[in-house]
Design brief:
Layout lengths: L5 E2 L7 H7 L4 E4 L7 H18 L3 E7 H11 L9 H5 L13 H14 L9 E6 L3 H15 L1 H14 L8 H7 L3 H16 L9 H22 L6 H20 L5 E4 L2 H4 L15 H8 L5 E15 L8 E5 L7 H8 L4 E4 L4 H6 L3 E5 L14 E5 H4 L2 E8 L23
Parallel strand pairs: 2-5, 2-6, 3-4, 3-5, 6-11
Antiparallel strand pairs: 1-8, 6-7, 8-11, 9-10
GO biological process, one term: response to antibiotic
Pfam families: Erythro_esteras
InterPro entries: Emycin_Estase, Hydrolase/PRTase-associated, UCP036794_erythomycin
């Protein structure tokens, strides 16, 4: 079996993956945790090659639109700002701040800004967030922007804002939407329709039309998402992943005719849900939906995993981040199998050989670590997966180390001295 594995030590070792990607327009790069150094750095290496060699248009990540849009403006120098990337990343104030406010993201975006300096405005590579969490930020941005650019539509934005305003101080979004009137949904949908109709007129600055449309889209789907959390609609997971695909489609339409996207999200979002036990629970995800919407040769899904190491995570939602030990992969898991074959980092491209694809076609546990992690409950962190159907390729790193956060607290302050571990 080892004869089918490619060594994984340098960017040049990615050649088999770059060949597999070929002329695909959608490349989805996963991660087995949100707090592992190597997942970020290998995604960066792949992305650099795709941008330089294959002409990819933008990066879309599992992050909030308003926060990631600050990065987008910075790498494109839209504001002609002399701010450091550390200052830009300090705008990430929602927990878990470390997910994008980290040294690894800083290094990649600095490279991206430098790469963009030699390109015209319409050629510059973007960096966007796909997620749905940023309701209040999106509301505030819409009201302030439209008051200046489109007073008529600004009235609708203010009406939507006032609809939720009595609940803004309550940060538990699911309680907000349990109590908010049904008419709130109508308000934000009317706003989205109006913005989409008039977005082409918002041309006072670069990408103003795109920013307005997606902030309005966030408002629509955030309402669906938080109502789903309390049982008033479709499962919240499906609402969230459908929103991310809807946002992705909006971005692709905006960047056409030659649009090509690299997506950075967790394996649980980019690995095809149909090859896991998610389907039995009625769940879909980004990888499945993108595959269903496009030709098979136009989409490449790349998973990541490791046998042991360390990770940044929290013991509960909004808990202080910690550097935690990642135990060795459990017996019978994908990670254990790959370590047992050889404890070396490796790249696997499943369509290179029928025997290889078959060997990874049976269902086995595949580790998934979230922003909340309990190593002592390790057996519950494995997703039953038909790996060669879930992904087109897989990067295995035998021993990983924790991500390097900028130590930004949810209030936005830099506090590198407050956490009990060195980075």
């Amino acid at each position: 079996m080892e004869k089918y594995f490619h060594p994984l030590q340098s960017s040049e070792d990615l050649d088999p993956l770059i060949d597999r990607i070929g002329d695909s327009n959608y490349v989805l790069l996963g991660e087995a945790s949100h707090g592992t150094h190597e997942y970020y750095t290998w995604r960066a290496k792949i992305s650099k090659r795709l941008i330089e060699e294959k002409g990819f248009s933008f990066i879309a990540v599992e992050g909030d639109w308003p926060d990631c849009y600050h990065i987008n403006r910075w790498v494109k120098n839209i504001d002609n700002s002399n701010d450091s990337i550390q200052k830009v990343l300090s705008k990430f104030k929602r927990w878990p701040t470390w997910m994008w406010a980290n040294w690894e993201t800083a290094a990649f975006t600095q490279w991206l800004k430098k790469h963009n300096e030699r390109l015209t405005d319409d050629q510059k590579i973007g960096f966007y967030g796909l997620d749905v969490y940023s309701l209040w930020d999106s509301l505030d941005i819409m009201v302030k922007y439209l008051q200046k650019e489109d007073p008529e539509t600004a009235k609708l934005a203010r009406e939507a804002f006032h609809c939720f305003e009595p609940y803004i101080e309550n940060e538990a979004y699911h309680r907000i939407f349990r109590n908010s009137p049904e008419g709130c949904k109508k308000e934000v949908i009317n706003l989205l329709k109006k913005v989409r109709k008039k977005a082409h007129t918002y041309d006072t600055e670069q990408e103003a039309d795109l920013n307005a449309e997606i902030n309005a889209l966030v408002m629509v789907n955030a309402e669906k998402y938080y109502k789903a959390m309390v049982g008033f609609g479709e499962d919240s997971w499906n609402v969230r992943d459908r929103h991310m695909v809807q946002t992705l489609n909006t971005l692709m339409d905006y960047h056409r005719p030659n649009a090509k996207v690299i997506v950075w999200e967790h394996n649980t979002h980019i690995g095809d849900a149909r090859a896991t036990d998610m389907t039995a629970s009625g769940l879909v995800n980004v990888g499945q939906l993108v595959r269903e919407q496009h030709k098979s040769e136009d989409v490449v899904l790349v998973g990541f995993g490791s046998y042991e190491g360390s990770v940044i995570a929290g013991s509960s939602w909004e808990a202080p981040m910690q550097k935690m030990k990642v135990p060795k992969g459990v017996e019978g898991s994908l990670e254990h199998k790959l370590h047992k074959i050889s404890p070396r980092d490796k790249l696997i491209v499943f369509n290179e050989d029928k025997e290889l694809k078959k060997a990874f076609s049976y269902r086995q546990g595949h580790r998934a670590i979230g922003v909340v992690y309990h190593p002592q409950r390790e057996k519950g962190n494995y997703v039953p997966s038909e790996v060669s159907s879930r992904y087109d390729a897989f990067l295995y790193i035998d021993k990983t180390k924790a991500l390097h956060p900028l130590n930004i607290q949810p209030n936005g302050k830099l506090t590198p001295e407050t956490y009990p571990f060195g980075i």
